[in-house]
Amino acid sequence: MFYGNKNLIGFGKKKIFINLQVNYDYRSRANYINLNDMKATSYLFIMANLIFTISLNAQDKGTFKDIRDGKTYKTIKIDKQTWFSENLNYETKGSYCYDDKASNCEKYGRLYNWTTAKTVCPTGWHLPSDNEWKQLTDFLGGESSCGCKMKESGLSHWMSPNSNSDNNSEFSALPSGCRINNGSYLNIQYNAYWWSNNEKNAENA
Predict the structure, then answer these.
(1) Residue 19 parent element (H or E)
(2) Among 22, 43, 20, residue whose Cα is nearest residue 31
(3) Which of 40, 147, 162, 194 gives a 20 to 30 Å CA spacing to 200?
(4) What is the per-residue pLDDT for 77?
(5) Cβ neighbours of 36 (radius 10 Å)
(6) Calpha distance 94→115 (Å, rounded)
């Protein structure tokens, strides 16, 4: 997904990311979405999804056509920000389908390494900053409750239980998993990961 741009991955480096988890009670704890000290995993990520933000004069709900390949994406305005409500599925070097299956790209979007993530955004969109992520989660009630409002409801894509998710924001987060530096894929249907554009150093974003 993008706030102007999003849904990425870090190539062979430990990356900082936004993480939503299937069986996490966001009402009582907030460790999985921490935008001040974003949670990194103990293994090295190569790829994650892209979500974009920031488009001027957008409606509450809309669509955006990527002229590079003709694909059309849903968008949603949340507070004063406009986000992709789908993960980017633009095929380019440094992008992957989960388990190397094209059907997963169609369903969940592509996974992008950090180098590609920084440049693959469609014109007029960009990767969200830490502050833009924080603005979103603050508007949705803070880290303790925003996850339930951001995740797609039901069990079409998320594994059970997913009982607390109502997608009230219509952000429609999907559990697209990730790819790590040894080429393995992890956590589809369980976790969603996205990049922030804040690069701390050569190994962390």
Answers:
(1) strand 17-21
(2) 20
(3) 147
(4) 92
(5) 7
(6) 8
Distances, alpha carbon 55 to alpha carbons 45, 89, 113, 145, in Å: 28, 19, 24, 26
| Residue 194 CB neighbours (<10 A) | 27
pLDDT at 25: 37
Token pair in block for residue 176: 């697209």
pLDDT at 23 over 80: no
- Does the pLDDT at position 9 exceed 50? no
Tell whether omega for the bond before 161 is within 30 degrees of 0, i.e. cis: yes
Structure tokens at 159: 């594994």
pTM assigned to the model: 0.77
User: Which phi and psi angles does 138 have, rounded to 5°?
Assistant: -65, -45
Structure tokens at 117: 């993530």
Greatest extent of the chain over all pairs of C-alpha atoms, in Å: 43
